[in-house]
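agent> Task received from the user: take the single chain below, predict its 3D structure, and emit structure tokens. No templates, no multimer pairing.
agent> Plan: (1) validate residues, (2) run structure prediction, (3) serialize to tokens, (4) report one or two observations.
agent> Step 1 OK, no nonstandard residues flagged.
tool_call: predict_structure(input=
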Amino acid sequence: MSFATEKDHHDDHHHEHQESKIEKIQVTASRLGRIVTESATRTEIINSEEIQEKALMRPGNISMLVAETGGVRVQNTSPALGSANIRLQSLYGRYTQLLSDGLPLYGSQASSIGLLQIPPTDLANVEIIKGSASSLYGGSALGGVINLISRTPKDEAEGEVLLNATSKNGQDITSFFASPINEATSASLTAGLHNQEQQDLDDDGWLDMAKYQRATIRPRVYWQGENGANLYMTFGAMKEERIGGTEEGATMPDGNAFVQQQDSLRLDTGFIFAQPLSEELDLNVRGSAMQQQHDHGYGLVAENDSHESYLLESSLSGYSDATAWLVGIAYQADKFDSDDFSAFNYSYQVPGLFSQFDYEASDDISMSLSARADWHSEYGTQFSPRVSLLYNPENWLIRGSYGQGFYAPTPFIEDIEDAGLSRLEPIEKLEAEQANTASIDISYLTDSVETSVTFFASDVENVTELEVIAPYEADTNTAQEKQVRIINAMGKSEIRGTEFLLRYRWRDLKLTGSYLYTDATKLSDSGIGREQLALTPKHSAGAVLMWEEHGSHLVGFEAYYTGTQRLEGNPYRDKSEAYWHLGLLGQITLGRVSYFLNAENLLDVRQTKHESLVLPQQAPSGRWTTDIWSRNDGFTVNAGVRIQFGH
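)
tool_result: status=success, residues=647
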């Protein structure tokens, strides 16, 4: 067997071969391209077929696409704006690095709202590495990596337009076009318009679904030289206006209106250049820049700020029959600048060195070692190793993995993202968050069946959390009293879990089932004993049955179960109720035109059927709502048409 090189990533982009779709997908998130079943680093793949199905259910963003993957939970972080982040194996969402073609185009720490601003239209595959990947990507990947892989142009021009409308008065128009320009160059263009009208489903004056209008555009250019050099370039722009909170004329329990809004403008650019230096050596240079401007409104408090992130990286890789290695140097920068609360401004510069070594000891045994040293301008020297082993006898895949990583704290933990900075004390003397993660994965693969069981464990130290300041500590002379501060929690967060997966194919039928057990605890606030992490169900499961004949029809049914969760700061209850989410999807294809109808949340599950989202009084952080532990959108139908052109 041989190793694919980094320069191949944008030529091959995981093209699926005619046999088993699982076995022949090439992964790039582990940096040294490997076939997924031959990589010691476990990388889970959401393939193009699944992406196309999920795009019919939620064309506007990728939240549903990743949410229905085992061990991945999309957690709503703002009931007012609807924003959410991605938790991998119950690790906090801020630890998940979101990449586009291996580049952090959405920032070193993608904001929770960012997940809702990325359409799945142009995706070919999605790669997920669970557990610390700081050895590969630095401090932003403490909990893992989600790498969004774009569709690449084919030899002939092609395109598609998707029109969608929902029963909750939402509309989406997305488009993708790709074409060769000449023998060496090709390009693609993705664009979308998205609209959602406000919805108050329980008629209490608080909007259950925020109103938004969004436009996105992303051109990409691919160039291949005669000497084997490759260049990939992209530019992205996104503009959105989003409004939630109280509807016009409504007030909160204190008698005042509380409109919450966020206007966003994001611009980004990135490139990857690869050049073979010889048959065994390759040079890779990549870089990206992102600027995101936000105008926030939290009731009467306005906050205007900008986030910037930059990456410049160069690596050299070498390949032989049994080994592959890579060494590289990187510079990352992350900057936050607030016009109104400058005490929270920060500018992190992080130069680093990284390396990876893959060794194939025999046909059945291989290993991967990676390590990274980062010199963080605020949190000092950080060392992040990771080791992965693979034993692959016949149809079995047995993997073990252990990694360490770090995360550089920022003010934007979940409560602050939702409530703003006005009540937060300036941050002092925080330690970097640290994690050890380990997993053992056992899989069995045949042409029609894939089964796996994963045992995972994580210990996280110095977790940043919000603490309420005692009344006598508050400064009552300021116009806006500081009522909360961010601290490093005492003790460790300990996460232990088991994940089961089953995929079965029979002719045109595909069945996927998953189950996740999680025991996630932290030291209790009293310092005595341990308690469950909030918003972390012990039991969750899912099943999807899909009947599809390509070019003709598709019918799918899905059922997802979420068990009870411990709740914090909720005066109505300490523990959530378990619930089911059921969905039904149908599509008919006539030539180049497909018509689809999708029904979500068939049981009309909605948290506000149990109690209000609105708190009896404003929380010390400034927040006016409880956490979302269920759903808040109710039964929804969407329908539309997809029109394909060219190849």
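agent> Step 4: summary for the user.
The helical segments are 9-12, 48-57, 63-67, 134-137, 414-419.
agent> Done.
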